[in-house]
Amino acid sequence: MADHALDWQARCPFWPQDVANRYRQAGIWRYETFFDLLARQAGRLGGRTALIDGARHIGYDRLHRDALALAGGLAALGLVRGDRVVVQFPNRAEFVTLFFALCRLGVVPVLALPGHRDLEIGQFADFTGARAVLTVQEPDGHDMVGLARRVQARCPSVRYVVVLGDSRGATPFDSLFRADVPLPAGLNCEDVACFQISGGTTGVPKLIPRRHMEYLYDIRMAVAAGGLDGDTRYLCVLPMMHNFPMACPGFLGTLMAGGTVVVAPEPEAGICFDLIARHRVTATALVPPLALLWLDAQAGLGADLCSLRLLQVGGAKLNPSSARRIRPGLGCQLQQVFGMVEGLVCFTAPTDSEERIVNTQGRPMSPWDELRIIRPDRREAAIGELGELQVRGPHTIPRGPCRRGAGRATGVCQAGGQRLIVLGLRKAGQHRLDRRSDLPDLGRAVAVGAMAHHDAQAGGLARHVLDDLELQAKKRLGLVRVDLPVFDATCRPSTRWRRSSGSGRGSG
After folding, report:
1. What is d(CA 58, CA 92) in angstroms, rounded to the nearest whole number?
2. How far is it, in rounded angstroms, from Cα 213 to Cα 40?
3. pLDDT, position 200
4. Nearest to 240 by CA among 336, 140, 114, 138
5. CA distances from 330 to 194, 250, 262, 386 (A)
6. Do the beta carbons of residue 221 and residue 347 sit within 8 Å?
7. From the CB of residue 76, how many other CB atoms can be counted at a distance below 10 Å?
8. Burial per residue of 218-248, b for 16 or more beta-carbon CB atoms within 10 angstroms, e otherwise
9. 315: closest CA among 463, 225, 199?
10. CA-angle at 472, arms to 470 and 476, nearest 5°
11. Furthest C-alpha separation in the chain
């Protein structure tokens, strides 16, 4: 690995060594990378269909060969282990191939979302010192080639622009498949695999480093929570580069389980209903506004959705009255999801009561997740007290900034000194995760939730109304809006944190 890459990896937050050793010894963190996962599945499943994108059916073995060939072309282009690149793709099978190819090389993608433009892409490239921008030029879409060229002109580190589609003088993506290029060895499962993107309510979204070993653990737990297996057919509706449809359990979890990923080019109900019927889709994930649109569309269309067994809804609070419409309206099980790209993810369980599924967003999926509610004076909150939620665990990035350059520090988990805080209300033996989208924009970033300390004796979840919580929070802090919570880098760990109750599957 080049010196610059080693130096850069060292700047990303890591767990204390004694904690990391405990996770390694327990087998939570395994000596495996994302490409190791693909190679194992290709050897085990061969030509079984991994991806369906339009008329293309791509087997596990073909996906593995294509990823290797693409890794060869990227290496020939000049990318090496530790380099960073900005990747902005729509929902296409090529993104899956590219992700695994980059993982094989140890090149770290910043996973930009489709709506990001010059400001976001430019800052991502500048902050990470990206060496390339990889994008897609749709025939009638935004001028992504022009955007990438503008970023390249402003960021001296960006040497390459790679384009799928009309490349207009940039490097054509399709020219990079080089099976003849030897690939370097020496990948480390504890290297950063990718940068995910935070919610961005405090300005330009912040970058969240996810490492192979902990992100794979995260996905294993999500696969168990969602009950995915080799018969799963997962429709990827939301932007594939987002953490939710990528890893909760998303398309990566589907491939880990040996299932098939069906790529939806857009989330419109008629298009997706046709894909569900044609490919016998069994699971998908939506945000609440899309779930409501699907419910309304199905009431008029009466589409064949009989194969659909599981609908995950996350990214924002789903109103209980809307949640009650899912099973009768779409004929499938609802699974509510509360997640932060920094690590903590909570699921309702298929075995939960309807009241629990409708009114809560579940339990942490890992028995190793540790949570507590802290008062402003840094003492643990008593029952009924408002406080700040603190989280740690094997798939939650630890506190501390990611530094760039001598004398400069920019938080991976915070930007410009602004803090995004999760508020909680401690309740005896219970926890409740909640988010509200109707809070006014008052200029400070605060995410509102209610979660109580986990006790080994905690038997379940109870509905909790957040009116008092919101009132206290508004008086004390002044709220802006609710977003995925970002772990406050100033939080200090406590030796009194306790492990959550439940097993990996049961806690999902």
Report:
1. 12
2. 16
3. 53
4. 114
5. 35, 20, 19, 38
6. no
7. 12
8. bbbbbbbbbbbeeebbbbbbbbbbbbbbbbb
9. 199
10. 115
11. 64
Residues in the chain: 508
Q: Which helix (H) or strand (E) holds 194?
A: strand 192-197
DSSP β-bridge partners for residue 336: 313
The two structure tokens encoding residue 216: 């794979």
How far is residue 269's CA from residue 275's CA, in Å, rounded to a whole number?
Answer: 10
DSSP E strands in 247-302: the ranges are: 260-263, 283-286
pTM over 0.85? The answer is: no
Separation CA 105–CA 442 (nearest Å): 44
Residue whose pair of structure tokens reads 């794979």 in the numeric block: 216
Alpha-carbon gap, residue 308 to 277, rounded angstroms: 9
Give dist(CA 168, CA 146) in Å, integer: 9
CB 494 within 8 A of CB 379: no
pLDDT of residue 68: 97
Residue type, 155: C
Q: Which residue has the tokens 């932007």?
A: 239
Beta bridge partners of 345: 339
Least Cα distance to 248 among 276, 205, 206, 286 occurs for: 286
Mean pLDDT for each consecutive 10-residue tract of the chain (508 residues)?
A: 60 90 95 97 98 98 98 97 95 98 97 92 94 93 94 96 94 97 89 86 76 97 97 97 96 98 96 98 97 96 97 91 96 92 89 88 86 77 70 81 36 27 40 31 26 25 26 32 28 29 29
In DSSP terms, which residues pair with 194 in a beta bridge? 210
What confidence score (pLDDT) does residue 420 get? 31
